[in-house]
Amino acid sequence: MPSGTCSNCCREASTLLKCKGKCGGDALYCNRSCQKADWKMHKKMCPVGDNSAQKLTFEMSHPPGHPFADLPDAPVQAVRRMDGYGGSGMTILFSDHLGIEPLLPYADELFSYCCDDEQDKREKAIWMSEGNYPYEAHVTTSVDPNVMKLKPEEACFNTEKYGDVVNALLQHGIIEDTGKKVQIGYYSVKFPICRIHAPQTDNIDEIRKQHKEREEMLARMGFETMHLGGGGARR
């Protein structure tokens, strides 16, 4: 039996049951009672029969004053990734679910300094669609488990900096407000804790490896890194 944290009651154990549905075992539970209690949330990423899982692609519109206000709606994809504490976070990537053409204006806007012709622009658009250039790298803020312990699929969404993206995620059903809120750092407002209806795309070992590689790179450049408490998160 796998070890981890129950997606329903948040209990840590070394003998949890893995969901055997279409999620591929993304969720872990103490027992069938916990699995049943969590089904209302979990079914959006673990559908039964011919039902489809939660759609993670959508189009982002831009209000006046936004850097992309003059561009057409951006085709994007929501991706759930692990944060430095081993919890969940969310990144928004450019997506090719509508084809490459809608990404060309963004490639032109972002890489005009190095795109010499239409072929260069198309290659940059393809490169963006492969997850190499995020639309928003982080729309969530890590929460120290000593401040608030979150369930594996929950994350704190930064509505102060990314309110338009958070609203779009809510409207498209990709995340769901749990009603919980938490105070983070110097922000004067409390941020909502939302359930993410998307599978995890990485693991804590990958995150720690990335942090180590980043620290080594910064050290070679002569920079110091700041170590945060709990879970080994580093910035």
Q: Would you write up a description of this structure?
A:
- The chain has helices spanning 32-42, 104-111, 118-132, 159-171, 204-220, and strands at 4-5, 12-13, 17-18, 28-29, 57-60, 74-82, 88-94, 134-136, 140-141, 154-157, 175-183, 190-196.
- By secondary structure, it is α+β, with helices and mostly antiparallel strands.
- The relative contact order is 0.14.
- The longest helix has 17 residues, at 204-220.
- Helix 2 (104-111) crosses helix 3 (118-132).
- The strands form four sheets. Strands 5-6-7-8 form a four-stranded antiparallel β-sheet, with helices on both faces. It has a four-stranded antiparallel β-sheet with strand order 9-10-12-11, covered by helices on one side. Strands 1-2 form a two-stranded antiparallel sheet.
- A hairpin with a 6-residue loop joins strand 1 (4-5) and strand 2.
- It is globular, with a radius of gyration of 19 Å.
- It contains five helices and twelve strands.
